[in-house]
Design a protein that fits this description.
By secondary structure, this protein is of the alpha/beta class. The protein folds into two domains: about 200 residues, NAD(P)-binding Rossmann-like Domain (Rossmann fold, 3-Layer(aba) Sandwich); about 40 residues, no CATH class. The protein contains eight helices and seven strands; from the N terminus they run E-H-E-H-E-H-E-H-E-H-E-H-H-H-E. The protein has a seven-stranded parallel beta sheet with strand order 3-2-1-4-5-6-7, with helices on both faces. Helix 2 links the parallel strand 2 and strand 3. Helix 1 runs parallel beside helix 2, helix 3 packs parallel to helix 4 and helix 4 packs parallel to helix 5. The site of nicotinamide-adenine-dinucleotide (NAD) has 28 residues, from helix 1 and helix 6.
């Protein structure tokens, strides 16, 4: 028996990285998963992995910067599974650029996915959750937004729009936690430096800006992690499973840092 037996989780950005790890962990815990991504082939490949674990999966292709596609995604999930118990609001994008070189297009791209889409996905799924009968825990749903340690105070001169977008995710988490209480819990996870395709991109773009070798920026970033190894997507997925599971039911409005101790507060 898993801790999420019979639950249905909708995961955005599920084609790879942290979203894929969440899908596999939630499937192992007994949940059915809706795998939403721009990358249709990637979402289908993860669906095949989930099915091989004996769990139910529905891959859905959606560009979450378009509200019509957000509504369609939620409708498809409910048509297939009947309800959505957990939202893992996880899709995100980054670009590395010096502050003085950031363009309006760069700013709008980052905010369209990391903040606008996160808000309207949360809104669409929350409407569905509030319409559902409560589960055994008395709640109608759990929402977990993926923010970042970049959204914490500190200053990120090479990805200022990204950092601002993630601070906004923490703020949305707080507002939604109050607005949706007591029916739905809303929390955020702030990962550190996770070994995923996103960090390969950061390493490449940062390296190009500063004339560094491939892998150099990544090695520099992970060297001070107190827990002594790079963060894995599974480290984030485990905390998401806790927040969605029986022991996470009395937490709401929290931004939980999971970063091996890089940032302490
Ligand atoms: N990797 C890290 O070190 C790290 C650290 C902190 C926070 N995060 C956050 O974790 C989340 C997942 O990151 P990751 O490292 O797995 O990244 P990733 O690039 O591996 O995966 C992101 C996924 O989001 C999807 N996506 C992007 N735009 C989309 C859109 N408009 N509609 C639908 N899907 C879209 C992509 O296709 C991709 O599959 C992001 O929100 C990211 O900001 C990552």
């Amino acid at each position: 028996m898993g801790t999420l037996d019979g639950k249905v989780a909708l995961i955005t950005g599920a084609a790879g990285g942290i979203g894929r790890a969440m899908a596999l962990r939630f499937a192992t815990e007994g949940a059915g998963v809706v795998l939403v991504d721009l990358d249709e082939a990637g979402a289908s490949a993860v669906a095949a992995e989930v099915t091989a674990l004996g769990a139910r999966a529905l891959p859905v292709r959606a560009d979450l910067t378009r509200n019509a596609e957000i509504r369609s995604m939620a409708d498809q999930a409910v048509a297939h599974f009947g309800r959505i118990d957990v939202l893992l609001n996880n899709a995100g994008v980054i670009r590395v650029e010096r502050l003085l070189d950031v363009t309006e297009e760069h700013w709008d791209f980052i905010f369209s996915v990391n903040t606008r889409a996160v808000f309207f996905v949360l809104q669409a799924v929350a409407r569905q959750m509030l319409d559902q009968e409560p589960g055994a825990d008395g709640r109608r749903g759990r929402i977990i937004n993926t923010a970042s340690i970049a959204g914490r105070p500190g200053g990120r001169p090479l990805f200022a729009p990204y950092a601002a977008s993630k601070a906004a995710v923490i703020s949305i988490t707080h507002s939604a936690a109050v607005a949706l209480a007591p029916s739905v819990t809303v929390n955020a996870i702030c990962p550190g430096a996770v070994e995923t395709p996103m960090w390969e991109q950061i390493d490449a773009e940062w390296g190009e800006l500063e004339g560094r070798q491939k892998g150099e920026v990544w090695r520099e970033r992970i060297a001070p992690i107190p827990l002594g190894r790079p963060q894995r997507a599974e480290d984030v997925a485990g905390v998401a499973a806790f927040l969605a599971g029986p022991d996470g039911g009395y937490m709401t409005g929290q931004a939980v840092t999971v970063d091996g101790g890089l940032v302490m507060s």
